[in-house]
Amino acid sequence: MRVIDSHTEGEPTRVIVEGGPDLGRGSMQERIGRFADEFDHIRRMVILEPRGSDALVGALLCQPTRDDCAAGVLFFNNTGYLGMCGHGSIGTAVTLAHLNKIAPGISKLETPVGVVSVNLLDKNTVTVENVASYRYKKRVTVTVPELGDVTGDIAWGGNWFFLVKESPFPICLDNERALTDAALKVMQALEQQGITGRDGSTIDHVEYFSDTNTPDANSRNFVLCPGGAYDRSPCGTGTSAKLACLAEDGVLAPDTDWVQESVIGSRFVARYSINGRNEIIPSITGRAFICAETTLVQQPGDPFGEGISA
Ligand code: PYC
Predict the structure, then answer these.
(1) N or C: which end of the chain has fewer CB within 10 A?
(2) Ligand 1: which residue has its CA nearest to atom 5?
């Protein structure tokens, strides 16, 4: 299987460019369901150690159902499947450009949660116009063992997020373990207390925020992804969810830059427009860099040919 690895502001993406599973010609929702039901061993092989790592997000390219899309793309990680992935869309666009499959300018990608556009500004810089995003509930309190009551907003940005304004620890890499533990506890408490996104959807990302000392950034975040790894980038779908909250609170006007910094100090520049249905359309700009062009091999008899899992 041929893959191309990139990182988007520090967060890795592995795009399967050859040798991935054929998921048929159904909708993107149907195809991701088929991936999970029939080919999950491929997700594990591509993402898990010893070939991958917990932070890695995979992207399977497939034929889109729509003529106006350059590719269909299905995202997956160390625990399952993602509806959308902002950093992954930037990594996919840079990978497609590296393969000469898209030209500078706007192309569309079809994902299981809708069509997103990627504007290739140069060979490393991409603006993703994400799916419509919105805040579902404001100031929801969850009682978390050892942390007490934690209040946050529930918002959709292509994935479901619980956004907490006050981080329990300063957001820096020295506190990565403590932040991960705290966010995991919040995620588990949300599930145990039946606090969900719309239609009972699991909230599988927790996002902490703080102010930042970096003069031209607006905020710093720490994002815990499903599977327990933290996002090295500021998280495209998480930044979209944040913009939806800022828009509804009236503290960020449309077409105004919001510079979101990650726990490692990398950044996305984000802005939004309004779609007239109480939702926003976020645009996220960031950079991705190709790191490797690899053939993944699974030799007969390899006890970890499908990755190391519990
Ligand atoms: O950038 O949207 C994102 C993302 C989701 C999970 C990891 N990165």
Answers:
(1) C
(2) 85
